[in-house]
Design brief:
Blueprint lengths: L1 E5 L4 H12 L8 E5 L5 H10 L6 E4 L2 E4 L1 H9 L1
Parallel strand pairs: 1-2
Antiparallel strand pairs: 1-3, 3-4
Helix pairs in contact: 1-3
The structure holds glutathione.
Glutathione binds next to α1 and α3.
Amino acid sequence: MIELYMRDGCPFCQKVVQAAHQFGLKEGEDFKVIDAAQGTPGREVVLNRGGKAMVPFMIDGDISMYESSDIIAYLKR
Ligand SMILES: N[C@@H](CCC(=O)N[C@@H](CS)C(=O)NCC(=O)O)C(=O)O
């Protein structure tokens, strides 16, 4: 399942989740949202896997990426 690392109050994160819904992807089936606010285990995953303290961040198996527009393009495919 695609993992979307987000935090509250992040407009770029909201943009990604809205796009996912528009593409017909279902939370809990196709993707899950993981809290990546500072101090959370999700933030540790973002830092360890991606190397930057930035959200949104996506992991789909071996593929991982930052940048909301890139994530949205990936979800569209
Ligand atoms: N160009 C990036 C911008 C992402 C961005 O600025 N994210 C902010 C939150 S909205 C961020 O990660 N700030 C640092 C943090 O939350 O630690 C994108 O489109 O995804």
